[in-house]
Design a protein that fits this description.
The chain has helices at residues 26-37, 73-91, 106-110, 134-146, 171-175, 196-216, and strands at residues 4-7, 13-17, 40-44, 96-103, 118-121, 151-153, 182-189. The chain has a single domain (4-216), classed as 3-Layer(aba) Sandwich (Aminopeptidase), CATH 3.40.630.100. The protein is α/β, with parallel strands linked by helices and 232 residues long.
């Protein structure tokens, strides 16, 4: 089986799965998004998350910008991301990149309930490095809220903000500065990807919301200002 799958789409959405080998059914969510809206995608299926890079053992953290510039990982995983964003720019306009992760069910217990579905990271921090405009992030979270998805946002200094300079979410800020490519990372709770059917339904819903977001990208404040999005 190939370690990385790629899909060429027809709309300016690129879905990236850095931990498809380790995060249960995140690859299936991405596959369904591709099927639903004909998005571009780069899905890691074979690189196993590791603190060290060893291509002979298929060890690499594909969410780490430093790792994905190493031999073999770069050719298999990073190069298609850059290739597809360039194609999207040339043919369709500014790219919209969504990085799909999985988060464990224990986080709901930490919150004292079972409402959290998705955590959105976009570079919040004490010194933020936003990977998309705040209004754009708000708009997507509002769309999720209306669809019945309980979305939290990654807080400054938290584990889910996508702020670290080595985090893949920062690829088009800390490594290749490009303010027109918008990136969000989506941490999806285990319950929304617990089996293939559930993961595909999650992908179908998220795909349609991504497509809806494209229609609102160039307009300011297309979100419900009365919704107070929680942080974690």
């Amino acid at each position: 089986m190939e370690r990385v799958s790629t899909y060429r789409g027809s709309i300016p959405v690129l879905v990236v799965v850095p931990h498809g080998y380790d995060d249960t059914n995140t690859a299936i969510i991405a596959e369904e998004i591709v099927e639903e809206i004909d998005a571009y995608a780069v899905i890691n299926r074979g690189w196993r998350r590791s603190d060290v890079h060893d291509y002979d053992k298929s060890f690499a953290n594909c969410n780490n910008i430093n790792h994905i510039h190493e031999d073999v990982v770069k050719e298999e995983f990073l190069d298609p991301i850059i290739k597809y964003t360039n194609i999207i720019y040339d043919k369709l306009g500014p790219p919209n990149v969504f990085i799909i992760h999985g988060v464990g069910s224990s986080i709901r217990k930490e919150l004292g309930g079972n409402t959290l579905d998705v955590i959105v990271g976009y570079g919040e921090g004490k010194t933020p490095s936003y990977t998309c405009p705040v209004d754009y992030k708000h708009t997507f979270m509002s769309l999720m809220h209306k669809a019945g998805i309980c979305a939290y946002q990654g807080k400054a200094g938290g584990n889910y903000s996508g702020r670290s300079p080595s985090n893949l979410c920062q690829l088009f800020r800390s490594k290749y500065y490009d303010e027109d490519t918008y990136t969000m990372q989506l941490e999806i709770i285990r319950e929304l990807r617990s089996d293939e059917f559930t993961a595909r339904e999650t992908g179908r819903v998220l795909g349609n919301l991504m497509q809806d977001l494209l229609l609102l990208r160039d307009y300011d404040k297309n979100y419900d200002a009365n919704v107070d999005f929680p942080c974690i």
